[in-house]
Design a protein that fits this description.
This protein is α/β, with parallel strands linked by helices and 498 residues long. 43% of the residues lie in helices and 9% in strands. The protein has a five-stranded parallel sheet with strand order 4-5-6-3-9. A two-stranded antiparallel ribbon has the order 1-2. The longest helix is centred in the middle third of the chain and has 27 residues, at 221-247.
Length: 498
Amino acid sequence: ACHSLLAGEAFADAGVPHVVCVKKEAELLDSAALAFTRAFYLALVVGDTVQNAFNIGQQAVAASPHVSRQLGRQERDKFLLLPEPTSDTDDRHNVPIFGQEALQNMKDLLAAAGIGVDDGPEGSLGTLGLHQRNQFLTSLETMTSKALMELLPRPPEDFVGREVDMYRTLSQLTVRRMVTVIGPDGCGKSALAAALCQYLAARSFFPDAILHVRMRNKSGLDQLLSQLVHAIEAQHAKFTALSNAAADSNIVDPLNLKSMEPERLPPKPASGDVESLSEWVFECLVSRKALLVIDHVELLLKQDGGSGTDLKIFLGQLFDRVRGIKVLLTSSSPVGMGASSSANSVSADGKEHQLGHFVGVVEAVVQLGHLNLKDSVRLFSRLSNHLNTAQARREFVKLLVTEDQAGVTIYSRNLAPRSLRLLEALGNGLAGRIVQIAYRNDEEYFRRILNIATQRLQPQGAIGGAEIRVSNPHSNVPQGGHTPQSFTGEGQGQGQGQ
């Protein structure tokens, strides 16, 4: 802390062997204090001596990107290590707080999380090189989040164009207990939910639990509860293993894993009926700050004659019994539609939706639309087997997308005829259809797309003599091919497929 020299001297005079403080007349930048603290304590944990850890902390301050170069050395020199050595041979601070046993215990702890750490020379953490030390510190810092991320779905490798939608959804989750992402089939709702799960887990937004359930065809509330029970048990087993590994070690636990040990799960009910499983879930989650993600919830809403009454009753009880729970849903429509009660929900666009069973809970609705032209072309270029290099993909995007049309969608007022034809050829900007087209397209279809990009613009309403018609964006891709009905292959030249 700033001006802490007097307090530090008092501790040293009282017999504390190692005291870090700040010069009496000096104020310390928060960014400098954070850089020093992280480097100093983590260096101690991995087996360095107090003196080396202090030096590493000072170096971290001087090299920190959050401290200006002009102030880096000044901030570095404000830190003091007491008691000060009385001679050149005084090595009172050249001792590790944690030794070889701590090193092995920490490696065992990381191994429980599936993380391997390279040995340094002579197997000593105090003599690890910079790469090995950074690897160890990074592993230590991300261990719990990595364990949670392994249990959650991952977004597609080529997940593009949804940065703003992720931000909108995350913003709603910070202020609402229930968020529903809606949109047409194939727009990427499931991918967005998976990406959010990974993002939130990596940053420990919900340290107690992130539970992901994906509904299948003909799903009912019993299938939802069965998957939820499995997710709770899998996460409990993972964190129990980490906590047990920490409890068996003799090291200081910087991640507080010993106190993180989850409470014992209540006995599972002998009966697998909906009421008994619901009660078990409520008991497991009652004291947790958790996120429940239900993908394709529209399958549950189709139950009970289309009202989804059972689901709504379950969610209403969940919100009432588990105060720390938040729920993220993906659906083709808001959950509250069709409820008979007078309670309402408010969507992100300001529209109200009836919400019959969630007293005191407001449903935030995030509308996921079609990808714009640039993102549609980018996604296609990354998946197409006709574009095998980064340079080829960049040239393809540059050829198809003009600056003034990059952000247009299939519904934009300023959509140019050429852009309309391109979007129609690329599944109207629906990510799922773009994936199908890219994976199944042949060279002729690829050249047709190039023809649209290279032909001259005709008068509004026609291209190459063909009438422009916007195909239904919600229609499914035909089984035998992927060319929308309004898309024709005639063009002004062949273009290049590579």
